[in-house]
Automatic annotation (TrEMBL):
<dbReference type="Pfam" id="PF13411">
    <property type="entry name" value="MerR_1"/>
</dbReference>
<dbReference type="InterPro" id="IPR000551">
    <property type="entry name" value="MerR-type_HTH_dom"/>
</dbReference>
<dbReference type="InterPro" id="IPR009061">
    <property type="entry name" value="DNA-bd_dom_put_sf"/>
</dbReference>
<dbReference type="GO" id="GO:0003700">
    <property type="term" value="F:DNA-binding transcription factor activity"/>
</dbReference>
<protein>
    <submittedName>
        <fullName>Transcriptional regulator</fullName>
    </submittedName>
</protein>
<keyword id="KW-0238">DNA-binding</keyword>
<feature type="domain" description="HTH merR-type">
    <location>
        <begin position="1"/>
        <end position="71"/>
    </location>
</feature>
<dbReference type="InterPro" id="IPR047057">
    <property type="entry name" value="MerR_fam"/>
</dbReference>
<dbReference type="GO" id="GO:0003677">
    <property type="term" value="F:DNA binding"/>
</dbReference>
Amino acid sequence: MGYTISQIAERTGLTTHTLRYYDKQGLLPFVDRDKAGNRDFKESDFVWLDIITCLKKSGMPVKQIRTYINMCMEGDATLTERLETFEAHKKAVLEKLNELTKYLKKIDFKIDYYKTAIDAGTEAIHAQTNCTWLDVR
């Protein structure tokens, strides 16, 4: 006796809709079915769902996640390809992180800009310092 899709949804924070979508997209080939044809999740499936969630939330497309899952199902013959998948994904995540860091600097700049203007009672204070948005890189 395993877990139902509702129990999995509650425990993982994923919706039943998302879990069904993942199944239809071929991301859950490891999930067994009971005699009635319902998904019958095992404790070990939580590890799979955790990595799928990690990859999805960090920007990996579903198609690429499916390719990764299929490689895992093939076993040791795909170890090198799986490593390459993670190395490429790490590079993409780091690039996105760098991009977000730049945006965060601009957001922080605007927060400071408005705090200074509020403290001075006017935005005109910034005209005196020649402070512009483009100064933040």
